[in-house]
Amino acid sequence: MRTQExxxxxxxxxxxxxxxxxxxxxxGFSLLGILVVNIAFLASGYRMAGLAEPAFDAPLDWGVRxxxxxxxxxxxxLLFSFLFGYSFTLQTDSAERRGLPFTPMFLRxxxxxxxxxxxxxxxxxxxxxxxxxxxxGLALLIxxxxxxxxxxxxxxxxxxxxxxxxxxxAVLTMAGLDPSATVADTAREAAASNSxxxxxxxxxxxxxxxxxxxxxxxxxLFQGPAVLAACLIGLAVGRLGALRDLPAHTVTLRRxxxxxxxxxxxxxxxxxxxxxxHTPHKFWGEAVDLxxxxxxxxxxxxxxxxxxxxxxxxGRALAAPGRMALSHYLAQSLICSLIxxxxxLALLDRVSPALEVLIALAVFxxxxxxxxxxxxxxxxxxxxxLLRALTYWGRPExxxxxxxxx
Length: 406
Prior knowledge:
By secondary structure, the chain is mainly alpha-helical. The chain has one domain (22-375). The chain is built from 15 helices and no strands. It starts with 8 loop residues before the first helix and ends in a 14-residue tail after the last helix. 42% of the residues are buried. Mean pLDDT is 87; it is low at 1-19 and 402-406.
């Protein structure tokens, strides 16, 4: 298909393939960052409660915690959310070109995401984000005609309102707060959580359901609006076609790096200090991170996209799991559950932070290999195929070289 009448179809196909490959590679890069962050929460009830595992108190343990929090926490889910919004524009454009009714298809897709997310949260990881995407997808559907400039303004407003909310929480909680008592109470709850997660299936599911009661509140009040803000930026970028010709936007990408790295890392340092020092000023750190984390995520994306043409092998390696991101996201939780909970080895709080990162890298490396093998014979990952079947209400072709389905 031609995007401009003056260009031959073959050249346009090459540009489209490159664009999609770079987006897939960026999605794979985001998936790796999410795993490096999530594995700590899957490996310990203490980390899920915001505390360090008491069994690992060596300088190396603290160094790894600080580095992961500083460079990865709250950054990669924003990058993934940006790509969710960007992909939304690809889906709307595809439906329009093919003359398909977009709204019912997208609603079925969101329903599938919600069901997968609920199963994921109850069985494997209560920190699931798929249900958040399902809810945010409804907002995107309502706002799908929004202008790019307006989308950026709304995203900025949401971010600033969230930061203001944390500032108010900081002001309200600073008076009369006893951090030592709070940490002690939380530690007792984390120990009880570990005991449940190391038990049988019924105990694990029950503990996940207990955690969901407060995690859902946090999702609605805080993470949901942050995800929506990132999705709106992705929608704006998709509408402007900014990723279709990256060399034409080199100045913008460079500017994102120059602003995003110093401001983002400075804000992340404040956040990291507030997380691990357990001071009454933790909400101040959250407020700062809400404003600066998107800048650091943008700097990561800009750096990655600028470096990608010079690292074609890395791009191909990351693009494969990026095409199967949903399957691998769920598989990561399953693998970690088999390692850390009573579903399998029950190694909760027995693995150091450094070893957690090494396990994450090993799991992702295995996913790269599996992805490249799987995609040699299949068009979609297994969960992607299921979601596509629900979206189009039909059976997509699975094998490469055949029609892509309805």
